[in-house]
Amino acid sequence: MKKKFLIFILLLTFLLGVIGITEGAMTYTSRSEFCVSCHVMEGQYERWQNSSHIQWAGCSDCHVPHDNYVNMMMTKALDGMGHVYAFTIEGKLEDIKIKERSAKVVNDNCLRCHEDLMQGINTEGRNCWDCHRGLPHGF
Predict the structure, then answer these.
(1) Which CATH architecture has domain 31-130?
(2) Do the beta carbons of residue 137 and residue 47 sit within 8 Å?
(3) CA separation (Å) from 92 to 28, 80, 84?
(4) What is the pTM for the complete model shown?
(5) Residue 70 CA: distances (Å) to CA of 81, 100, 106, 135
(6) Sequence-ordered alpha helix ranges (H) in the chain
(7) Any idea where the domains of the chain sit in the sequence?
(8) Which residue from 33, 58, 121, 139 lies 20 to 30 Å from 27 (Cα-Cα)?
């Protein structure tokens, strides 16, 4: 009985540790300052700092899905690993270009935050930046 209880306590401690580390990493990597620290995104970061979006939207608010926590975690992990690979292994030093999957996430997040402004506007087949090209930074 003591052995089973000890194993249970060890597993519970391990699980809580993993959850704590994961949550800490998610919080840390959601900061806009983290995004610019390893990307060649200084220009986009500067334009964002000088936009109205700086008051209420950071990189993760626009570039990470918010439909569910698992999707958010997976996107952050896959995109993050892809960026690390591109910059360290491949040595790419040019700007990151938004991919189709990421463009959908960004567009969905524009609509999520600006839902009240979009009533009566047909968004079918269009992205927000088709009209609002430079917001909050150049695409």
Answers:
(1) Orthogonal Bundle (1.10)
(2) yes
(3) 24, 14, 10
(4) 0.78
(5) 16, 20, 17, 28
(6) 2-29, 32-38, 42-49, 59-63, 69-84, 100-113
(7) 31-130
(8) 139
| Of 108, 113, 107, residue with least CA distance to 57 | 113
Digitized pLDDT (tens) for each residue of the chain, 139 residues in all: 899 999 999 999 999 999 999 999 999 989 999 888 876 788 888 888 888 888 889 999 999 999 999 999 999 999 888 888 888 888 877 767 788 888 999 999 999 999 898 888 888 888 888 888 777 775 4
Burial of 136 (0-12, 13-18, 19+ CB in 10 A): buried
